[in-house]
Design brief:
This protein is 15% helix and 35% strand. The protein has 300 residues and is of the alpha+beta class.
Length: 300
């Protein structure tokens, strides 16, 4: 069964085609050119896949062909050492003689070289028609979030076109976890902490009016010593973010916009949680009853 082929109409007006080599058993040689209706195709730049199998043209092609140069054909074998010329080692050997003699005598491999002739290039046709799809280029295989599409049955084996169909980008929580871990003042960051969906972040924040605390050194027996060090006093603040597991969309391009917006939004929540703690309430968010000095209030 021949797989269907598709043409992606990119936002800039170009058309992109995924054009892998034929199966190795059917590959006629080394590919030397790709053509859309006789015009050379250009490799999609920048590359989006490891092997660079995407190519572009300025129009929707009706016929795409590849030109292959077959390996040279061996026509005979030539003696390389004139001093060895003899009835046993003639100046030339046919392919049939060579095959027969090398089965019994290994020295022929050192004494002879192949004589070859170039073959005519071979044309391979990519069967059309090329059904048009409106989409951006596929996501980069390492530098962009990947896409999982809800594909029609006939496209389940065509991974190169998945980004043009409805689906989702997985791994939002894991992506954010790695970003948040590197943020200042973050102490811990867990995904689905204690079976609660989302991301749990704990931050160690200083006071808005800097405080310091003395931490004594410990003796050999575990007793506190008079010596020690002074460190800034901080408050532990926790925040739970209801981050979804994936970003869904009608296609990869639309979902990618939402992905970046969500990343920015959740990062901003962590940044906001990292503001300095209030000295008046000791970082608790409220002032305990009786903590204010009412004796200094003026009477009416």
């Amino acid at each position: 069964m021949t797989m269907p082929h598709y043409a992606l109409r990119l936002p800039d007006g170009r058309w992109a085609y995924h054009l892998p080599d034929p199966h190795p058993d059917r590959r006629p040689g080394t590919r030397t050119g790709l053509y859309a209706d006789g015009e050379p195709l250009k490799r999609l730049d920048p590359l989006v896949d490891a092997k660079g199998l995407w190519y572009t043209s300025d129009h929707h092609a009706e016929r795409i062909t590849a030109v292959y140069q077959p390996s040279p054909k061996t026509v005979s074998y030539r003696l390389t050492d004139p001093t060895a010329l003899s009835e046993r080692y003639p100046a030339t050997l046919s392919v049939e003689d060579w095959n027969e003699r090398t089965e019994r005598h290994d020295e022929y491999w050192q004494l002879y070289e192949r004589v070859t002739e170039d073959l005519e290039p071979v044309e391979h046709v990519y069967e059309g028609p090329f059904m048009p799809l409106e989409a951006r280029q596929p996501p980069h295989y390492t530098d962009e979030p990947q896409w999982r599409a809800d594909l029609p049955t006939e496209l389940t084996q065509r991974a190169e076109y998945r980004h043009a169909f409805p689906g989702h980008i997985p791994g939002l929580k894991q992506h954010l976890q790695e970003r948040i871990k590197r943020m200042p003042r973050v102490q811990h960051c867990f995904v689905d902490y204690q079976d609660k969906p989302g991301i749990h972040v704990s931050l160690r924040v200083p006071f808005d009016q800097p405080r310091a605390m003395f931490i004594p050194n410990t003796g050999r027996r575990g007793q506190p010593l008079k010596s020690g060090r002074t460190v800034p006093e901080t408050v532990i603040r926790s925040v739970d973010l209801p981050v979804p597991a994936a970003v869904h969309g009608p296609n990869y391009e639309t979902a990618l916009v939402d992905w970046h917006q969500q990343v920015e939004f959740w990062i901003a929540q962590v940044e906001e949680a990292g503001v300095a703690a209030c000295s008046a309430c000791n970082g608790r968010g409220y002032v305990p009853h009786g903590a204010l000095d009412h004796g200094t209030a003026k009477k009416p």
